[in-house]
TrEMBL record:
Gene3D superfamilies: 3.40.630.30. This is GNAT superfamily N-acetyltransferase. Residues 2-192 form the N-acetyltransferase domain. InterPro entries: Acyl_CoA_acyltransferase, GNAT_dom. PROSITE patterns: GNAT. It holds the Pfam family Acetyltransf_1.
Length: 192
């Protein structure tokens, strides 16, 4: 059984458990899109983790959701107003086809997924998308954007880009492809 909870409603230790997954999550702490390039370079891993902890404890709305399989923390999705993610403004994938002003706080973005290895292939990411839609809707979003990959279009292994999610996953949740951001990247939206 998969359940989704806001990050502010779970113990910080559960969020840490998800981000302890091997690879980028334990160095990024879902800060990449929240920081400018200079800020990213100036922060270390401990500062990124502390910033996410502070955001999950104090930000309203919380910047993400945690998935549980039974009572075990299994995954994370970052979802919040697009204006809170300044790196998106400079992203060629996003900015080239932006259909609303960047400062429109009613547009929310889903930018990152983390699923612990032992829980992959069980539908955790799909449930996180559905939870993100519910969370954004109940928080006043008018539109939700996502920037997934089309795995068949990725040169080499798509594993390094899977944190964006896949086109099929968002399509199954009702998102429409609004533009091609790059050969392997799409911009998908859902009006809520």
């Amino acid at each position: 059984m998969i359940s989704i909870r806001t990050a502010s409603d779970v113990p910080w230790a559960d969020v840490e458990r998800v981000f302890a997954t091997p690879g980028d999550p334990r160095t990024c702490w879902c800060r990449y899109f929240k920081l400018t390039g200079a800020q990213w370079t100036e922060t270390d891993v401990a500062a990124r983790a502390a910033a996410l902890r502070d955001d999950t404890r104090r930000a309203d709305p919380t910047p993400g959701l945690v998935a549980f399989v039974d009572d075990e923390p299994a995954g994370w999705v970052a979802v919040e107003p697009r204006v809170n993610l300044p790196r998106l403004f400079r992203s060629r994938v996003v900015a080239a086809g932006m259909s609303t002003p960047f400062d429109d706080a009613s547009v929310w973005s889903i930018v990152c997924f983390v699923v612990r290895r032992e829980f992959r292939g069980r539908g955790v990411a799909g449930e996180l998308v559905r939870g993100a839609v519910d969370h954004a809707r109940s928080s006043g979003a008018s539109t939700i954007e996502a920037y997934p990959i089309e795995p068949a279009q990725v040169k080499g292994s798509p594993a390094g880009s899977m944190y964006h999610g896949t086109v099929s996953m968002f399509r199954a949740a009702g998102f429409d492809e609004t533009r091609v951001g790059a050969p392997a990247r799409r911009v998908m939206t859902l009006a809520v």
